[in-house]
Description:
The chain is α/β, with parallel strands linked by helices. The chain folds into two domains: 2-123 and 300-364, Rossmann fold (3-Layer(aba) Sandwich); 127-290, NAD(P)-binding Rossmann-like Domain (Rossmann fold). It has 13 helices and 15 strands. The protein is globular. It starts with a strand and ends in a 25-residue tail after the last helix. The mean pLDDT is 96.
Amino acid sequence: MIYGILKDTKEGEFRVISTPLEVKSIVAAGHTVWAEHDCGRAAGFPDEKYAAAGAKIVYSAEEIWAGCDMVAKVKEFTPAEYPLMRADQIILGCIHPAGHPEEVEAILKSGCVAFTAEDAHRYGSPNCEAAGKQGALFGLESMLTINGGKGKYVGGFAGAPGMNVLILGAGVVGRGALEVLQALGASCTVMDVNVGVLRTLLSQYGSKINTMLCSKEAITELLPTTDMVINCVKWDKKRTDFLIDKEMLKLMEPGSVLVDISNDDPGAIESSHETHHDNPRYVVNGVVHYCVSNIPGAVANSTSVAYASEMLPMILSILNDGVAECCVKDGFYRRSLTAYKGLLTHEETSAVQNRPWIRPEDALGISERRLDPAPPATVTRSDNFYKKA
């Protein structure tokens, strides 16, 4: 098969889904790789390295789309790419389909086979770890007086206390933020709905952190003494309430910081809206908001290396085994199948966008096979199935 590496074009995005190291593995498996010109240059991987690894350098996205059996990128697909999608072609990216109805419509109309990478990670995405760790650092940068923050130093100085930080969510993102902030001396409180996860964190950090079960009431209690909130909660897109509403922000001191790493739309923070690296902050009710949606793009080399290595097994499975066998062997890959030749196969998208869907195993005709199990990607359920003819 011919595998195409697209250059990501989203504003502030510099990552690449496959580095020259992965190209070597894909070529060694007997496949052909086309790399779009400068697809990895911003992450530290110039065309020369891709060519040395065995890739053909292609000078337009249109040629990649027209000539490759499978195309892949880090982020979602853009309106400029919608007309380039074609029937039976395999596409892979962080599609975030539930929140992008126009993208989903284009994918379905094209008849392509689409995988959304964010649902494919058995052990959590390296991008989530990067978002948590780098997001914490951007939060500290936002706290600086020169950036509109109240100028509190994370670990404090002699005679001046350090920051009180509230981390919402103890998944991969939240644990990454905690690792950085606790090491730098912040007083950290972590909230989650899973007491088992909180107990594990307490043991890991030798009771040097605080933990609480997550609720709006508990957050309200802590906000008056909280300097920075890090939101890492993946919010159910069907919910219309918030963990933090705009009025609650008034409980915090002016110049406090809210970093919304999850940045869902809708999300857990009423006052959040997407920003970009060139203008990352805004203020609501005196609180500095940092809501960049692709934080890992700021550390493009490290995130590309980590992410590309984790995505390689999935890419090789698709190329070597085909879509159906790939989905039989790995339930996490199966649950990331978003569309199959005009059929929606993504449950959350069905529920959020009120579209009919079909289970991936049914669309692929593998439901009677012995399938590798995987939990649902989200808590959102849909019984809006395609009606049988």
